[in-house]
Amino acid sequence: MQDVETIERGVCNSKSACCAKLQVTDWLKDIKSATRLDNVVEIRFKNTRKDYYRNVNNLKLKVGDLVAVESSPGHDIGVISLMGELVERQMQKHKVTLINGEFRKVYRKAKQVDIDKWKEAISLEHETMIRSRQITADLRLNMKIGDVEYQGDRTKAIFYYIADERVDFRELIKVLAENFRIRVEMKQIGARQEAGRIGGIGPCGREICCSTWMHKFVSVTTNSARYQEISLNPQKLAGQCGKLKCCLNFELATYMDAQRDFPSNNIPLETENGLYYFIKADILSGTYSYMLQGNTPSAQVTVPVQRVKEIQRLNKRGKKPERILRVDVNAITEEKETFKNVVGQDDLHRFDRPKKQSRNKKRYHKRRPNRNQNQR
Asked: Counting Cβ atoms within 10 Å, is residue 116 exposed (0-12), middle (13-18) or buried (19+)?
């Protein structure tokens, strides 16, 4: 009755991201719980929504069970996603809904009647969303209904909307309540949350992070690109949602730590050969690229950060080094070999050369007798 596939189909919308990204690995499941919240369970619903409820009736529950829980008004249907010691730790990361300072209750395991009514409510969600968009257009409201989530008992629905500015939707709530005969709750979401529900493939070739594992969004600014010396091209920096990519923050701390002791790149380096101006930086390798005044950018010189500091200290004292590098720029430096092509697979002309005939084939042709001679 409550098989896993049915549960996942009900809680996960076919057009939205799967609820697997809301799962938490319970690494404390083998340890006997000593927490005071041992009877509190984590329950997940549709659209990355989850909350915490108390098992007041001491039901024998396990992860994956479909349960009926307290709601306002009526009851809702959800899936138990976490139990035990780890629930208290997860509550510190997420906002818990309390009624008069107490947890909401788990009523019972969902009966077949509850599941049938819940599935019927889920089947109405797409039709309700399309109709609500038409109503919004008729009322000329500058907003978009992104999704609709019905409560398990079909007495209430959450309308997720996107709007760039403040919208007065009081008239909209009245019209929706009259048309669908339900209690209406409006919840605003951003472009990132909408992209996470719809899903898609990013420029990296993988499924976008917000639809697979990210459940919390951190603000991203262009400073993240500047610290990493990334070109400020809006088309390359924007993700599927039209906002700056979340992955710009993933390696930001590494780059900031690496640049902590870097000298200023706005100061030109004075040498006896002339002035050298900054072009670019390779942060992880700890080098700056400079160009001699009057030369083309192609004739750039790669200078270690420590050498840049040394030249800047000499320039402050009024001294000019003979060269920008300690050795001659034109001297041939032996590069470290990082890759050795043994079989020639990376040679572009490997298919142009004719194949050599193997020795075995030559020997075979020599030893093979003539059929006409055998017939004679």
From this structure: exposed
Please provide the distance, in angstroms rounded to a whole number, between the alpha carbons at the two ends of the chain. 83
Residue 73, preceding peptide bond in cis (omega within 30° of 0): yes
Give the CA distances from residue 13 to residues 52, 122, 139, in Å, rounded to whole numbers and listed in that order. Answer: 22, 9, 28
Asked if the model's pLDDT at residue 171 lies above 90, the reply is: yes
Residue 140 CA from chain centroid, whole number:
34
Cα 56 from Cα 105, distance rounded (Å) = 6
The structure tokens 């701390």 sit at 253
When pLDDT is cut at 50, 70 and 90, the band that residue 334 belongs to is low
Distances (CA, A) of 365 to 25, 359, 361, 362: 66, 10, 6, 5
- 58-109 pLDDT per residue, tens: 899 988 899 999 998 889 999 998 888 888 888 887 788 888 888 999 999 9
pTM, whole model, 2 decimals? 0.66
